[in-house]
Fold:
Amino acid sequence: MDNQELINFFRQAALEVDLAMQADLASIESGLLGEVLFHGIFNGGKRIRPQLTLICAELTDGARRPDRQRILDLAIVFEYLHAASLFHDDVIDHADQRRGKPTANAIWGVSPVILAGDYLLSRAMTKAGAVGGAEAMALVGRATEAMVEAEFLQARTAAENNTSEENYFKVAAGKTGALIAAACEAGVYLGGGSPEQRAAIRLYGENIGLAFQIIDDLLDYQGDPARTGKAVGNDLGEGKMTLPLLHAMRRAGLEDRATLEEVLAADGDGKTARFAEVMDLIGKYDGFVYARGRANELIAAGLAGLSCFRAGRELQILKGLAGYVLRRDK
Structure:
């Protein structure tokens, strides 16, 4: 499956997910809550997480084959969780823009946005329980716990200037991998998959999330702003310890490491002003090559486990998505 076929498939499925969410949220009585939710949820986004649930529910030869509406009801849970995390992130970061538009907190203030995020978390748990019972609720709960813990770990990492790769992957697994893994596993669970299949798809989902984060790291240094829609160097300006930078710091000689530490200790503008210098040092110590290699390894490991599923269109889509993650330029 080539890139264009994959993009066309996901665009069409995203429309189905949007219609399901609009129908589900139509019963909200508070006008303000509805406005905040619709602004945050329907402000762009590819709907990858719920689409993975839809795909994975069709992967298995399980005895129980849920109808499409049941699968959709569970799938949108994962978009609600993602949207809730973005609402809360924007409040925490005092962000006033997301996807080129004003954030909900920039328009309505902090309190309504926190409450809207809380509503989505509650709605997600209610729907998960109604569709998939205690097991689906447990999947949602574990993913949410991992996301929150990762936020605390990221804050501690920044305060301690922790440059360990292990720590980087713990944060990425919680912030990005956990929800994607849960979305995949929920689909296989609903489709009657075996414990082996659930473990395989969980690894695939987590590794897709980790690889996606690594490619994001690379694009922040090497991306074309005309394609990505944002300037390079944002992560450096915010002091984020991305994988290419971590690798360079670990391998750098004393003088070069001191230079990198000096840049990281500067304010945002000071970091940005020395972006080219940091780029050169990361290249010198093969940080970009190493990061891309790790992304390739993660994708390969995730794909290897999919041999326990029958061949078919759904498996082709999952493999195509894995390739797209590695090739993407925006």
